């Protein structure tokens, strides 16, 4: 398992937090995602055999938010 903190911009309400959480936890290999609007970040723990940081970022961006490492 690997844990990464992603910077996420564009979450403007609690619904956004739920959306980002759903997107991240829906990715195969993601074990947990702790998303904070106040901190504009997501702490994600994932199996590096199943996915990678770039895929996490891409999924969040596809959902309409700005993500970076
Ligand atoms: Mo709130 Mo976010 O109405 O994508 S859910 S702004």
From TrEMBL:
Q: Which PROSITE patterns match?
A: HMA_2
Which SUPFAM superfamilies is this protein grouped with?
Answer: HMA, heavy metal-associated domain
Q: Give the originating organism.
A: Pelistega europaea
- Pfam families to which the protein is assigned, alphabetical: HMA
Record-given protein name: Heavy-metal-associated domain-containing protein
Query: Among its keywords, does the record have Magnesium?
Result: no
> Locate the HMA domain: which residues?
2-68
The transmembrane residues are: none
For this UniProt record, the keywords arranged alphabetically read as follows: Metal-binding
One molecular function GO term is: metal ion binding
Concerning InterPro entries, the annotation shows: HMA_dom (IPR006121), HMA_dom_sf (IPR036163), MerP/CopZ (IPR001802)
Source taxon at top rank? Bacteria
């Amino acid at each position: 398992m690997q844990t990464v903190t992603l910077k996420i911009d564009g979450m403007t309400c609690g619904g956004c937090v739920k959306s980002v959480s759903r997107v991240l936890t829906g990715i195969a290999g993601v074990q947990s995602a702790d998303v904070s609007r106040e901190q504009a970040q997501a702490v994600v723990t994932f199996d590096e055999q199943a996915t990678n940081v770039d895929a996490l970022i891409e999924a969040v961006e596809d959902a309409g938010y700005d993500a970076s490492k």
